[in-house]
Design a protein that fits this description.
The protein has about 160 residues and is α+β, with helices and mostly antiparallel strands. It is built from 3 helices and 11 strands, in the order ααββαβββββββββ.
Length: about 160
């Protein structure tokens, strides 16, 4: 653990501080604690007269099996192309030709399920991509737009 003297030396001259350290020391960052978040596995290593801080973290923890993911993909693939009707009051503002559009009662088609991506489950809050068509006055053709919804926000129309 660095003493206050070595901490002051590190603030003034990193090269002096490196000479006082062993080849690798595990310590918390010394200066500006508001800018650095302490990491339990932070290691300071000498690197070309500079300090290099490395921090190891877990990038992914895939707890679902591939069989579960394949089953989820198959269930979702069966739903793609089906007609659905929105059953909750839901306003969208991303349709430029119809701002503040209420989707309640509109019918659309499921185009894609985005809960699984490249064979891995992702945390999509609104996993169903649904395409709608609406008639807007002043437009010769129906306006198409896409909205993402949860499964409990629509019902299947047969």
């Amino acid at each position: 653990m660095p003493t206050p003297a070595t901490a002051a030396a590190a603030a003034l001259s990193p090269s002096l501080f490196l000479q006082s350290l062993p080849s690798a020391a595990t310590i918390a960052p010394l200066s500006r604690p508001s800018l650095f978040r302490p990491c339990p596995t932070a290691t300071i290593l000498p690197f070309r007269a500079r300090l290099r801080v490395t921090c190891q973290t877990v990038l992914s923890a895939d707890v679902s099996s591939s069989a579960e993911i394949e089953e989820e993909e198959q269930l979702a693939a069966a739903k793609i192309g089906k007609r659905v009707r929105v059953i909750v009051p839901l306003k969208v503002y991303h349709v430029q030709k119809a701002p503040g559009l209420d989707l309640n009662g509109l019918e659309g088609v499921i185009k894609q399920y985005v809960g699984v991506w490249k064979g891995k489950r992702i945390s999509a809050n609104l996993p169903f991509k649904i395409e709608f068509q609406i008639e807007v006055e002043g437009q010769p053709r129906p306006v198409k737009f896409i909205s993402h919804l949860k499964e409990d926000e629509f019902e299947y129309v047969d």
